[in-house]
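User: My instructor asked us to take a sequence, write out its structure as tokens, and then describe one feature of it. I'm not sure where to start. Here is the sequence I was given:
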Amino acid sequence: MSAEQRVFVTGGASGLGRALAEGYAREGARVLIGDVNAARGEEALAALRALQPEAHYLHCDVTREEDLQAAAQWMQANWGGADLVINNAGVADMGPVEAMPLADWEWMVQINLLGVVRGCKAFIPMLKRQRGGALLNIASMAGLVHPPFAGAYNATKAAVVALSETLKAELEPDGVRVAVACPAFFRTNLGESLRTRDPRYARWMKKLVDESKIDAESVARLIREGVARGEFRILTHPAARRFWLLKRLLPYRLYEAAMRRAGGRGRARSQPADGPRSA
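Assistant: Let's start with the prediction itself. The structure tokens for your sequence are:
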């Protein structure tokens, strides 16, 4: 991207959002980050301005439609529009479906799914008026391949994939591109937002994240490269890509058996002998 490009990132003050923001700023793009954490927002902004002096931060809670509308209005007023809108903000859960309170399901839906919907609704009119630009929605491999003990996370990320496919068909006639990124586990701070009723799931999540061989900066680079190539479904982890291909190409019972074996190995390595339990 060049200095003419204008990028907005939700959840842009930490983790993958910050890595994406810094990657685009390093390429010369003007980047607006939105985040609910003001202290991290200012810290991230200082780092961004060292790369691109026009970077900006706005407080943005993706559960509030008016915050997303304010971001779109700020970009229109100050930069004349947007070229790439990244709906990145997300949270996590782990635990059996029956053990997760409905309040936690609603929290997950409000952020992981409706947060993306609000971002799209706020910016699509602008992108359509421009007859150009792109939406990048950050989902997860959990939106394509659904591991156990992450029901709400799987469901919301699968919904983001479905939403992105819908938007791609709807917006192509207007010259607006849509992409959805589906990374697997990588080293980031996603565990900070984790809600679970059993501390062993938190330890399992931490182990999966900490032992990943890939960090947020590497995932961000792979996503940026996918966007630059015009890919729609951006898969950043080769092993996860193979599982998705297995799911698509094998009879489901064979894929399910392979998934069960992989999940069993992971649980055996990362949990106590008595395994997970509901609270």
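For the description part of your assignment, you could build on this observation: The radius of gyration is 19 Å. Try explaining in your own words what that tells you about the chain.
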